[in-house]
Amino acid sequence: MKGALIGCGFFAQNQLHAWAEIPGAGIVALCDTDEAKLAETARRFGIERTYRDAAAMLEAETLDFVDIATTVPSHRPLVELAARMRLHVICQKPFAETMEDARAMVAAVEGAGRVLMVHENFRWQSAVRRAIDTVRGGAIGEPFFGRVSFRSGYDVFSGQPYLAEGERFIIEDLGIHILDIARAFFGDVDRLAATTRRVNPKIRGEDVATMLLSHAGGVTSVVDCSYATKRVPDTFPQSLVEIDGTDGTLRLDAGYRLTIQARGEESVVDVSPPLLSWAERPWHNIQESVRTIQQHFVDCIGAGREPETSGRDNLKTLALVEAAYRSAATGETVRPGDL
Ligand code: NAD
Ligand code: 89V
């Protein structure tokens, strides 16, 4: 499959490294409005066909898919452009700025009969995946409580300066991943209540969020996120998990330690992610998940299956983000299904 990548910024470098390792798929053309980033990325990955304009690229190239790695304001026009060209699409998170945009994007690609996957990669991190598969396999019985937690003081703003500038920060950028992990464990959400706070005075948005989720299947979960947590060692970018089930408990603790206690037995396993040749600590768990999700996209197209994190699926994660902001602003519990 021949693909083109749009947006040659900070995170796209990981996506390009991962594409180079995926059999049967590759990136043949690049696009960025920024000439310097385009040229540097083309040189780094040896990709000769480069464009400043996405429409011109999609007209000129013969492609199967497009990988959109730009920030959120450009997602809707680029996804709709790709749909008009009848291409399969991967779009980075956050998928859209509004539910209305997100629904229009899903309709556009589905209307073209193509696959749309959101690059929602955290549930594909190997440690998180191991925990998801363990719970789905019934190892701790029926879950009734969960906590998915991401707390760090890591300076994300040096690599991604735009994160300091938006009115929204941690729920939209990071909480979206952690809420998606909670959905992967516990399913759809009926009600959500949230509080937010800004601790770092140098940024515009909230950098602490605590969310209480009532899942349709009966689980109550807490999703808590912070970039204002000064802890040593810092756990960036690990998502920590605690789940209580009718037959036992699962803990994914700092340092990728997975503990399962069930039916009188305990297992403690090191589920550290591999360090891919191009990866760099501490980002290596995220970098590995990029390769996994991109492989999932290719596999799904080959098998005619909907990706687990399809555009349609991601509408539910996005609704949790909207519900959290609404709840924090109003002090009320919100039903994501109403949004
Ligand atoms: P960035 O600003 O470094 O890169 C975005 C690039 O897109 C820039 O080079 C910009 O010039 C280009 N661009 C913007 N609009 C364009 C257009 N219409 N046509 C062509 N090029 C265009 O941003 P980033 O940090 O790489 O983030 C990109 C996206 O990836 C964001 O949505 C972010 O949330 C997401 N992200 C995801 C993860 C993850 O783990 N899934 C991690 C980091 C960032
Ligand atoms: O994964 C992300 O979306 C990144 C970060 C880990 C910094 O939140 O933006």
Automatic annotation (TrEMBL):
InterPro entries: Gfo/Idh/MocA-like_OxRdtase_N, Gfo/Idh/MocA_oxidoreduct, GFO_IDH_MocA-like_dom, NAD(P)-bd_dom_sf. Residues 129-251 form the GFO/IDH/MocA-like oxidoreductase domain. Gene3D superfamilies: Dihydrodipicolinate Reductase, domain 2, NAD(P)-binding Rossmann-like Domain. It comes from the Bacteria. It holds the Pfam family GFO_IDH_MocA_C3. Residues 3-118 form the Gfo/Idh/MocA-like oxidoreductase N-terminal domain. This is Gfo/Idh/MocA family oxidoreductase. It comes from Jiella sonneratiae.
